[in-house]
Specification:
Protein name: ACT domain-containing protein ACR
Low-confidence stretches: 12-26, 143-154, 329-340, 345-362
InterPro entries: ACR1-12, ACT-like_dom_sf, ACT_dom
Radius of gyration: 22 Å
Function: Binds amino acids.
Strand order of the largest sheet: 5-2-4-3-11-12-10-13
Keywords: Repeat
Distance between the termini: 12 Å
Number of helices: 9
Shape: globular
Number of strands: 14
Pfam family, one: ACT
Strand content: 25-35%
Structural class: alpha+beta
Helix content: 25-40%
Mean pLDDT: 80
């Protein structure tokens, strides 16, 4: 959204979102989609890519997120010789079992998951939110040597601020959020509210770069507002997690080159050998070209030494791998207070019958 923009949302109160709880085991015609969830650790993506390469699987596109010691990925792959989807159930079972072994950490309190996704229109980012939500990445877990980067080294103004209160007069729960503005922030928030079985009846979004404010009037699908402190706390944690999952933590590296079988495995191996930790990644191929984006830190979650990046760029090729952005050097957001109820007397002035979208720019 542009600087100084705002948006108002209204919803038909009779609308209730569907909630997808399960995944199937059928590949599409073009590729096989596999979903992964497990404990994050340095070198995990490299190990996954190495297994897929050994099993003659070519990664066509993928998206990988890490958050709060958890990792999730949605990977579209093909057979590396035919270029088509993998359908042999015995081979698929072997792929699933070997990847599950890679994901299963020795001290993992949760079960690693590897599933084959059915064909459908579910957005990849939406699926990643659902996977990580089901994996309870919003639970705050203290693990030695992990998960401290976000709280220790980032300015507190960079962290999301979420409040949840009940508007007794109108029988709604009001969710107010303030966070650093970024692409798909509204999408991430609304998806999470929907997957948690809440209906958004009204909303206001305002951006005053570099921050974004969002306010939503919600009820549970049963028509009631939030009724307990535990539910309120859980919603706050889940929305904070939804904001943080796609945050661009670390240095952004972009890879552009001719695609080939095993390319992703080779690149992630080089990252691992140079002690880089991949926090988030977007993998894509089109017309024989690979365009991949990686967000990396060192193994402890701190900024990467520029000398290491220079060495990696020379090894891979300066025209192939380039530094796009370093979020660790981004300017800090100005300190502001959480937005108040933006609607004011909105309820007195408008009908609530239809869904409407209004946007203006200053």
């Amino acid at each position: 959204m542009g600087c100084g923009s705002w948006m108002r949302l209204e919803n038909n109160p009779s609308f209730a979102p569907s909630f997808r709880e399960t995944v199937g085991v059928v590949p599409t015609e073009e590729h096989t989609t596999i979903e992964l969830a497990g404990t994050d650790r340095p070198g995990l993506l490299s190990e996954v890519c190495a297994v897929l390469a050994d099993l003659h699987c070519n990664v066509v596109n993928a998206e990988i997120w890490t958050h709060n010691t958890r990792a999730a990925a949605v990977v579209n792959m093909t057979d590396d010789s035919s270029g088509r989807a993998i359908k042999d159930p015995i081979r698929l079972s072997r792929i699933r079992d070997l990847l599950c072994n890679v994901l299963r950490g020795s001290d993992d309190p949760k079960t690693a998951k590897t599933t084959l996704s059915p064909p459908g229109v579910t957005n990849r980012g939406r699926r990643l939110h659902q996977i990580m939500f089901a994996d309870r990445d919003y639970d705050r877990v203290e693990r030695a040597g992990q998960g401290k980067y976000r709280d220790r080294d980032r300015d507190r103004s960079q962290l999301p601020n979420v409040t949840v209160v009940n508007c007794i007069e109108k029988d709604y729960t009001v969710v107010t959020m303030r966070a650093k503005d970024r692409p798909k922030l509204l999408f991430d928030i609304v998806c999470t509210l929907t997957d948690m079985q809440y209906v958004v009846y009204h909303g206001v979004v305002q951006t005053t770069r570099p921050e974004a404010y969002q306010e939503f009037y919600i009820r549970h699908v049963d028509g009631f507002p939030i009724s307990s402190e535990a539910e309120r706390d859980r919603l706050v944690q889940c929305l904070e997690a939804a904001i943080e999952r796609r945050a661009s933590e670390g240095m952004e590296l972009e890879l552009c080159t001719e695609d080939r079988v095993g390319l992703l495995s080779d690149i992630t191996r080089i990252f691992r050998e140079n002690s880089l930790c991949i926090r988030r990644a977007e993998i894509s191929t089109q017309d024989g070209k690979a365009k991949d984006t990686f967000y990396v830190t060192d193994m402890t979650g701190n900024p990467v030494d520029p000398k290491i990046i220079d060495s990696i760029c020379r090894e891979i090729g300066d025209t192939v791998l380039q530094v796009k952005q370093n979020s660790c050097l981004s300017p800090k957001s100005p300190r502001t207070t959480t937005i108040g109820f933006l609607f004011g007397n909105f309820f007195k002035a408008r009908s609530l019958q239809n869904f409407k979208l209004i946007r203006s720019y200053s």
